[in-house]
Design brief:
Helix content is about 50%, strand content about 10%. It is an alpha/beta fold. It has a five-stranded parallel beta sheet, sandwiched between helices. A five-stranded parallel beta sheet has the order 7-8-11-6-12. A two-stranded antiparallel ribbon has the order 9-10.
Length: about 450
């Protein structure tokens, strides 16, 4: 494998070439300027280019980025950026040019360089193999809407999906981040492989390491048999780490090592395993704030915050509400029709719960109204929670809650209403706490706390 090392600092070039020398079959070529790098690429069949972003002390110097763009346009050389941690804007630009990966200079260990070269060699081998012609995926597209925000979202997904690099989906609660991840997986190189979903905030801290990495028999008390974790069972598919901000710090370090080296060690094991899949993470949390507070590792944040997909809140694309409402009505099995005035009312409304809140509203309409025509009056009656929007009857549990609430003093009314909502959500979800939490628009841990508190007061029988 012929490897170009482009860096203006001689010591940095020599340090990198010395690590590459340990890789069998590696032939390295050094360059300190853009002109030298261009000459080497023109005269040699370079396979891999390790490119420093800036080739001088001048902060305006973008020669490394220029070479990355040129190599991306030619498509013959696999480019990897070698960068400092404060250059994320340039790294994002490089990834858009088709750069395969990026490495922080401070992390350039012999282990990482070896894993990187091995990964690139495998990537180039797969690229030379004849491609199977497969029909486009037929799974339904949950990304409903034709607004500029949704057009931009689909374009970003289209660019991010083919990569094998980690990706981060950001956006407010209820914006449809799960649908974004599903779309990334459908458009990936291996849509037939598993998509494994892990909610990092819903698994107890004592269990999540075993759930992710697996364990050997006898690794801890109660480990009476070997268990393969999600990093194993996902194979070469997509591992979706939802609520990544809730991952404990010690596991953030283990995740970072997987992302950098492609290897992990189950609990109690002595031999490493190779991770062949892709990690896509999601969060509604402010990761920059978490980094500042020390609850989220800065190096992991920099590793994830490159291929970023932002799911817009519903208030950012209200013109998609008619299409979304029709989509959710079709899913409910009701032929609901919305009058123009009702759609205008929905567009003007604020949506703190985003698309999830709209879905819940349509689900309630499908259950509680008899007439398929939805008017502003129907919406007002449903929102008021007083007279029923149609002759359809509420579940008896909800009638009983409302009767009890009206007979109480104000402070107790609020608590009783909260208890009733929780009870109704749990009933509809068949006791599934995760589903109940989603319908309430709260986190699973928050629901657990509410259930514990209400059970302690005798308001809720579990």
């Amino acid at each position: 494998m012929k490897i170009l090392v482009l860096d203006d600092q001689q010591s940095a070039r020599h340090a990198l070439t010395s690590r590459l020398a340990a890789f069998p079959g590696a032939e390295t070529f050094e360059a300190s300027t853009l002109a030298e790098a261009r000459a080497i690429v023109a005269s040699r069949a370079i396979d891999l280019a390790l490119i420093d972003l800036r080739l001088s002390e001048d902060p305006r110097d973008r020669d490394g980025l220029t070479l990355a763009r040129e190599l991306g346009e030619r498509g013959e050389v696999t480019a990897v950026m070698v960068t400092g941690s404060n250059e994320r804007g340039e790294v994002r630009a490089a990834m858009r040019y088709g750069v395969y990966d990026y490495v922080l200079k401070e992390d350039l260990s012999a282990e990482l360089v070896t894993a990187l070269v091995r990964d690139v060699r495998e990537h180039r081998r797969r690229a030379r193999e004849p491609q199977r012609l497969t029909p486009p995926p037929t799974a339904p597209d949950e990304l409903v809407g034709a607004s500029p925000a949704m057009v931009k979202l689909r374009e970003v997904i289209r660019r991010v999906a083919p990569s094998s690099r980690p990706a981060l989906v950001r956006g407010p609660t209820g914006a449809g981040k799960e649908c974004v991840v599903a779309a990334i997986h459908r458009l990936s190189a291996r849509p037939e492989s598993p998509l494994v979903v892990v909610n990092c905030g819903a698994i107890p801290e004592s269990l999540i390491e075993s759930q992710l990495f697996g364990h050997e028999k006898g690794a801890f008390t109660g480990a009476d048999r070997r268990h393969d974790g999600h990093f194993t069972t996902v194979g070469d598919g997509t591992l979706f780490l939802d609520e990544i901000a809730e991952l404990p710090l010690q596991l953030q370090a283990k995740l970072l090592r997987v992302l950098e080296s492609g290897r992990y060690t189950p609990l109690g094991a002595t031999a490493e395993r190779v991770f062949r899949g892709r990690v896509v993470a999601a969060t509604h949390a402010d990761l920059e704030e978490r980094v500042a507070k020390g609850t989220f590792r800065q190096d992991l944040f920099y590793r994830l915050d490159v291929l970023v997909v932002r799911a817009p809140g519903l208030d950012d694309h209200p013109d998609d509400i008619p299409a979304l409402a029709a989509h959710f009505a079709a899913e409910s099995g009701r032929a609901l029709r919305f009058s123009p005035e009702a759609l205008d009312a929905l567009r003007r409304r604020r949506w703190p719960g985003n698309v999830r809140e709209l879905r819940n509203l349509v689900d309630r309409l499908a259950v509680f109204v008899d007439d398929d025509l939805i008017t502003p009056e129907v919406l007002r009656l449903l929102a008021a929670g007083g007279q029923q929007a149609s002759a359809a009857r509420r579940p008896e549990t909800l009638d009983a809650v409302l009767d009890a609430v009206l007979a109480l003093d104000l402070p107790d009314k609020l608590e009783a209403l909260k208890a009733g909502l929780v009870e109704e959500a749990m009933r509809r979800a068949g006791g599934n706490k995760s589903a109940a939490a989603r319908s309430l628009g709260i986190h699973r841990k928050a629901l657990d706390r509410m259930l514990d508190r209400l059970a302690g007061r005798g308001d809720l029988d579990e």
